[in-house]
Specification:
Blueprint: E1 20-21, H1 23-28, E2 38-41, E3 44-47, E4 66-67, H2 69-73, H3 91-105, E5 109-114
Parallel strand pairs: 1-5, 2-4
Antiparallel strand pairs: 2-3, 3-5
């Protein structure tokens, strides 16, 4: 089952980091005007800069610079769903979120942990 989230082309990733990333630093990495693009999921911050979908005009740009845990769990690209709270979701949505974490972990570098995150467990 875990194999379904493995990239078709192998990705060389750096070891995950646990450097503190401030909410302000995350917000600046929104993929606009040449900025990096970061997405947080359950407080872990991923560098998605290499994927144009997270850049301005891309289909996942709504997630850039934010903790997108709830939206990913709900498979939603609605701006109002892009927020960190996920604990109140149903089991199916929680499993979907865990699947997204596996997907991101296999493709993008973890560059740090969002400071003050209350949604990690």
């Amino acid at each position: 089952m875990a194999g379904k989230f493995v990239p078709k082309t192998p990705v060389n990733l750096d070891p995950p980091k646990d450097d503190p990333i401030s909410v302000e630093e995350l917000a600046k990495a929104d993929g606009t005007e040449g900025q990096k693009a970061y997405v947080a999921i359950k407080g872990k911050v991923y560098d998605v800069s290499g994927n144009k979908a997270y850049r301005e005009g891309g289909s996942y740009h709504v997630f850039a610079g934010k903790d997108a845990s709830r939206a990913l769990a709900k498979t939603s690209t609605k701006a109002e769903d892009v927020r960190p709270e996920w604990q109140d979701l149903d089991d199916k949505e929680k499993q979907t979120l865990d699947d997204w974490i596996t997907f991101f972990t296999n493709r993008y570098n973890v560059i740090g942990i969002l400071q003050g995150a209350t949604n990690m467990a």
